[in-house]
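= Paired protein data =
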Amino acid sequence: MRIAFITQQTPYGKGEGFVIEELIEFARQGHDITIFPMRPEAAIYHSDAKTISARAMVMPLLTCSLALLFLKFMVSRPSEFLHVAATLLQSRNLGILIKNLLVLPKAIWIAQQVKTKGIEHIHAYWASTSATAAMVASYLTGVAWSITCYRGDIGDNNLLALKHQSAKFIRCPDEQSREEIVAICKLQNRDKLHLIRSGCERHP
């Protein structure tokens, strides 16, 4: 399966160690994975990450080319732009709105890459801006998407109810995180919330 993974920094940076393990396992199982780090750094700190670094598409969060792409999108696809803007404007406070608007040009770029590469599914690690980019890319391409959520990003409540409605499923690492999503989104059922622990078994 061709899967796009949107991370915060993986395969770059010092964090997201368990994400590296999981992406290596997806590749080992034969999936064609493409990684989109939202805020890539210059260096790879984890030695294991080097095995998947060639699968990453590196684009800084803000560049002149992304700004031009965003302007072109606004002019050429005004109805889609208005839909996306109306969605992001539902952010619960100004700080979250600004964070979401900052990732919008890159989300449009990711959508282009998803189409070009024939991606079949988009998965975001973290429910904050990574998931915002995934939700926008899914809307612009029609490709289904999903999220891996954790405590801090669940509590941030960055359009979490809208993301729950839009996503095909949400992965929760434990029961408490699942119940927090239920409470924040005021859910009547848990059909989209799947309990899947973090990490994976090591293979020789």
